[in-house]
Structures are given as C-alpha cells and as structure tokens.
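Page 47, continued from p. 46.
Same chain as before, 144 aa.
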Amino acid sequence: MRIILAIVMLFFGLISYGQSVNVSDVTKGANCAVLKPKVSGYDEIYKAIGAYITDKGYALGKADKDLGIITTEYKQSNWGLLKLQFVIKDSTVHLTAQSMATGLGIDQVSNIGARGSYAKTRFIELYKIANAFPSSAPVEFIIK
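Result:
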C-alpha cells in the first residue's frame, strides 16, 4: 500500500512540476531557444556559456570554439536525462536539447504534448534553463 501511495504522489508531483510554468505563448513545436547574451563579442559569449553550464551543474561534453558549439554531457533531471547544445550565431546563442529516458530512447526536446505530459515536462525544463541564462532581451523560441 505504501508503494502505491508513493507512486501516486510521485505521479502528481511530476504533473504539478510540469504545470508550474506557463508556456502557452511559445509556438507549438518550437525546439530552439534564441538567447541574447548580456555580454558581447564571440570570446565573451563563449566564456559566458561555459560559466552558465558549470553553474547549472552540467559537465562539458564537446566544445568547438571555431564552430561556436558547446555541448554538455547528459544530466539527470526529474524525468530522465537531458543534454544541452549551445551554438553561437552572430550575437545570439541558439540552445537546443536532447532527452533520453529508459524505454523511450533519445529525442529532441520541443514544445509538444499536453500539459503534464512527459513531452511537455521536458520542454518546460528547456524553457526554464533558457530563461535563466543571463540575457539582455526576452528569450525567443523558434522551430529549427
């Protein structure tokens, strides 16, 4: 009986976690956050991304300064594993994410699914990460 109660509480906890952020203004299917860093200059943006990744507890995966790409290792989240990719484009940063969960494989995170669903919960995590990045303007979400 305690196990069933624990599972029910976990389930409702995940649903409430997924509903704690309102993403209704984000285009359905959006899978890329366009960030406008507070710093300017390629090297400063690159350093800001590295500092942000470290601050959020992610381990650096691959980095290619010439191409302006930084990818993290997968990190455990409330619903599975999440890997981030930052790509510097001019004075903006494009942030995308991949998720991996047992039995579900690897998927690109995008704004799909109903409120409280696994897919929406993954997108809300990306939404929170993007909006916590030190930006000079609101985050824009696009379909890439």
